[in-house]
């Protein structure tokens, strides 16, 4: 794990020190930032594999840092928060947060969640180089880009994952729980409405093609267009 570098962003020095000790024991390389401003400066200068980001910080809060990072990178982000409200979590997932750790937490749980998020991220990075064309959508899986009628869509990492999963499994009905397991992972702890939130956002971005994602009442969702065509480019 010597190549995996993690940025800890928290205004509590004691918290940063404890997290750093446990992560270094696991073989991770760790850097620290005491506030949002320092975090963004370090992120611009260094390539990190994952960011552990506290929400409540002076000057620039965690939400703002997350938003700025997401504008330029799909690096995994795990939020550290003393607030476990559902609204905060849903808001974070809309911004592109990969997971949450609620304070106080056990070091073992933290390490397990970090490894799980990194594993999912690595799996996404190993997607093949195929271009998938389905209806008015074109997916470039390696670069994580989606084009709607040749115009690139602006998607969060989780929106891309969900839309990509739908496109690879057309006309199959999935329950919300199945979608959570397939897209967010079996270790994800969250509300089923997370799926509804992301589906709503995707439909808004699909515009006149929002009917591609169909609601199957009492069950979940399925993806359906008039014609399915998958094309590979070497």
From TrEMBL:
Residue span, OmpR/PhoB-type domain: 129-225
Modified residues (4-aspartylphosphate): 54
Pfam families in the record: Response_reg, Trans_reg_C
Cited CDD domains: REC_OmpR, trans_reg_C
GO cellular component terms listed in the entry, alphabetical order: cytosol; protein-DNA complex
Keywords attached to this entry: DNA-binding, Phosphoprotein, Transcription, Transcription regulation, Two-component regulatory system
PANTHER family: DNA-BINDING DUAL MASTER TRANSCRIPTIONAL REGULATOR RPAA, REGULATOR OF RPOS
Protein name: Stage 0 sporulation protein A homolog
Organism annotation: Paramaledivibacter caminithermalis (strain DSM 15212 / CIP 107654 / DViRD3) (Clostridium caminithermale)
């Amino acid at each position: 794990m010597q190549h995996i570098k993690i940025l800890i962003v928290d205004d509590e020095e004691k918290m940063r020190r404890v997290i750093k000790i446990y992560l270094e024991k696991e073989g991770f390389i760790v850097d620290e930032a005491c506030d949002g401003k320092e975090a963004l400066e370090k992120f611009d200068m260094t390539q990190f594999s994952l960011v552990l980001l506290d929400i409540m910080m002076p000057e620039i809060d965690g939400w703002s840092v997350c938003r700025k990072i997401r504008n330029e990178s799909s690096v995994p982000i795990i939020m550290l928060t003393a607030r476990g409200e559902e609204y905060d979590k849903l808001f974070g997932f809309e911004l592109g947060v990969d997971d949450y750790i609620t304070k106080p937490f056990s070091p073992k749980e933290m390490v397990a969640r970090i490894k799980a998020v990194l594993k999912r991220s690595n799996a996404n990075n190993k997607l093949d180089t195929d271009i998938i064309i389905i209806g008015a959508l074109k997916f470039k899986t390696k670069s994580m880009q989606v084009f709607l009628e040749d115009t690139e869509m602006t998607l969060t990492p989780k929106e891309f994952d969900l839309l990509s999963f739908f496109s690879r499994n057309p006309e199959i009905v999935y329950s919300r729980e199945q979608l959570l397991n397939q897209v967010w992972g079996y270790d994800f702890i969250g509300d089923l409405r997370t799926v509804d939130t992301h589906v709503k956002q995707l439909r808004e971005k699909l515009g006149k093609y929002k009917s591609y994602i169909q609601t199957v009442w009492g069950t979940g969702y399925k993806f359906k267009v008039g014609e399915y065509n998958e094309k590979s480019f070497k």
